[in-house]
Design a protein that fits this description.
The chain folds into 2 domains: about 5-80, 3-Layer(aba) Sandwich (Glutaredoxin); about 90-215, Glutathione S-transferase Yfyf (Class Pi), Chain A, domain 2 (Up-down Bundle). The chain has helices at about 10-25, 45-50, 65-80, 90-120, 125-140, 155-170, 180-190, 195-215; strands at about 5, 30, 55-60, 60-65. α1 (about 10-25) runs antiparallel to α6 (about 155-170) and α1 packs antiparallel against α8 (about 195-215). Helices cover about 60% and strands about 10% of the residues. This is Glutathione S-transferase 1-1. InterPro entries: Glutathione-S-Trfase_C-like, Glutathione-S-Trfase_C_sf, Glutathione_S-Trfase, Glutathione_S-Trfase_N, GST_C, Thioredoxin-like_sf. Pfam families: GST_C, GST_N. It comes from Papilio xuthus (Asian swallowtail butterfly).
Length: about 220
């Protein structure tokens, strides 16, 4: 039985869940949620997720949201001995730290800088850009001497972070000054299972959204 995924493809956290599922070879039923139309506020969806956020999954009646929590659940429930979320406490702690860094620093700093420009027509805030660059610099440091984000193998951390970094890149924010990030990004694009289907297609939709909204914000 496939897991129900409620999502919007332009969302980085939603694409992270698609990457998790692809890496674990888990089938999902795709349920699009039109956030701009307020579908996340309908009573049926609120029963699944009172915070009315995407991504949300439903697995045999069990409902869960927040992409990194979903990733941990999928590995614990279906991953067996998968190294996506290693069982060694220290190795797992590093993966957790990188996931929490994405949740608490990198993605919020991007959202803080970019979304007010696109959705609110506000001018770029240079202080917010500085904070985003600071988070990218931290990621560049984490990757120094490390093949992947949390060691020598692909983990949940890479799949979550690549959804964010690819979104930053697609938004036109240069990552060229972070050579470790660039090297890692190219590696994950090549080695994450079914990357193009899970992440690339949604990125194209995100880019289309940006292009459609930009003329309104640049008037």
């Amino acid at each position: 039985m496939a897991i129900d995924l409620y999502y919007t493809p332009g969302s980085a956290p939603c694409r992270a869940v698609l990457l998790f599922a692809a890496a674990l070879n888990i089938n999902v039923n795709h349920n699009l949620v039109d956030l701009r139309a307020g579908e996340q506020l309908k009573p049926d969806f609120l029963k699944l997720n009172p915070q009315h956020t995407v991504p949300t999954i439903v697995d045999d009646g069990f409902s869960l949201w927040e992409s990194r929590a979903i990733g941990r659940y999928l590995v614990n429930q279906y991953g067996g001995d998968s190294e996506l979320y290693p069982k060694d406490p220290k190795a797992r702690a590093v993966v957790d730290q990188r996931l929490d860094f994405d949740l608490g620093s990198l993605y919020p700093k991007f959202a803080q800088y970019f979304y007010p420009q696109i959705f609110g027509g506000q001018p770029a805030n240079e202080e917010h850009l500085k904070q985003l660059k600071g988070s990218l610099d931290f990621l560049n440091t984490f990757l120094e001497g490390s093949k992947y984000a949390a060691g020598e193998g692909l983990t949940l951390a890479d799949l979550s972070l690549v959804a964010t970094v690819s979104t930053i890149d697609t938004a036109g924010i240069s990552i060229a000054e972070y050579p470790n990030v660039v090297r890692w990004y190219e590696l994950v694009k090549k080695t994450a299972p079914n990357y193009e289907e899970a992440n690339g297609k949604g990125l194209k939709m995100f880019k289309l959204m940006i292009d459609n909204l930009k003329p309104k914000t640049e008037l």
